[in-house]
Specification:
- The chain is of the alpha/beta class.
- It folds into two domains: 129 residues, 2-Layer Sandwich (Enolase-like, domain 1); 231 residues, TIM Barrel (Alpha-Beta Barrel).
- The strands form five sheets. The protein has an eight-stranded parallel beta sheet with strand order 7-8-9-10-11-12-13-14. A four-stranded antiparallel beta sheet has the order 5-4-1-18. A two-stranded antiparallel sheet has the order 2-3.
- Helix 1 packs across helix 3.
- The radius of gyration is 20 Å and the shape is globular.
- Bound molecules: magnesium ion (MG).
- Magnesium ion (MG) binds next to loops.
Length: 370
Amino acid sequence: MKISRITAYQVDLPLHEGSYNWSGGKSVEVFDSTVVRVETDQGIAGHGEVCPLGPFYLPSYAAGARAGIAELGPHLIGRDPRELDRLNAVMDRALKGHPYVKSALDMACWDILGQAAGLPVCTLLGGRFGDDVALYRAISQESPEAMAAKVAGYRAEGYRRFQLKVGDKDGNADTDIARIRAVSERLETGDVLIADANTGWLMHEALRVVRAVRDLDVYIEQPCESYEECLTVRRHSDHPFVLDESMDGIGMLLKGHADRAMDVVNIKINKLGGLTKARRARDLCVEMGLGLTIEDSWGGDIVTAAIAHLAHSTPARNRFTATDFNSYVTKSIAEGAPERRNGRMAASEAPGLGVAPRWDMLGEPVIDVG
Ligand SMILES: [Mg+2]
């Protein structure tokens, strides 16, 4: 089987809530997503998606994803899409770094492998652990009262895990303390609360916050910009600790584990470079006894399907949370994607990723290589 053509499509994904706001006043209103279609000489086609969280979250941006896919496309024509490690070696040789660029291409080839094998990607990634996967809901940064009200609303929809976007836009740690306290008061036994500063606190702010909420049952996620700052905060705190932005590859996972820097790792598929490398990172974290948030930087139905396959194939004990990004956006770009039920989702049992793009939503290709 050989790759015969690669096309890519740009699609805008507006948010139900109107905007998504996180640390330092960063905000996105419409997500700029890219869908990749990889066709083969045997009639099977696979699909992937990459959607950076704006141009100022990770070192990635939507136009960069498309420029990179156009750059890599010609290197993949004629290759066997089922040989995922070989394919990744080709991509890494052709383009140094830029993991997010490779993610949708890798994802599309997993979709092809699954269809060729007649198996869901979840099975190929290790098998299905449990009936479904618990989801968290990200609570966009607003006033403490507004965030508490949002949590109550999403709780009524079935979510039991909530990730608060802290890292106050005005650098006011007191407001972040109030956010965590206001939400905590609304929670019930069995609920899980995470305060994610997305690198937004200076160390003195982070140290004040963890001390002020010491009596509360809350996870602290990526408080500061650098790994070293996060490690310092971790050593002055007794909250369970999640690292996300700093954990961008196997080297950092090993370092973090050696330093006992975190209890949970956030694995975003495109941060690692696709399902192949996210699976590698996932498996290492499982061996190291870490909890895992399995997700991506953002996306629509295709990204959500890929998350569901990777999360569902993660041992339940290690699986901390996952995300149903397709429920945050107003537009459906594929049929067959996971649908949340009671705050949980499951990977499709159809071969591959189990999704079929809605071509009327995607328009004409912006990249066509073949
Ligand atoms: Mg995070």
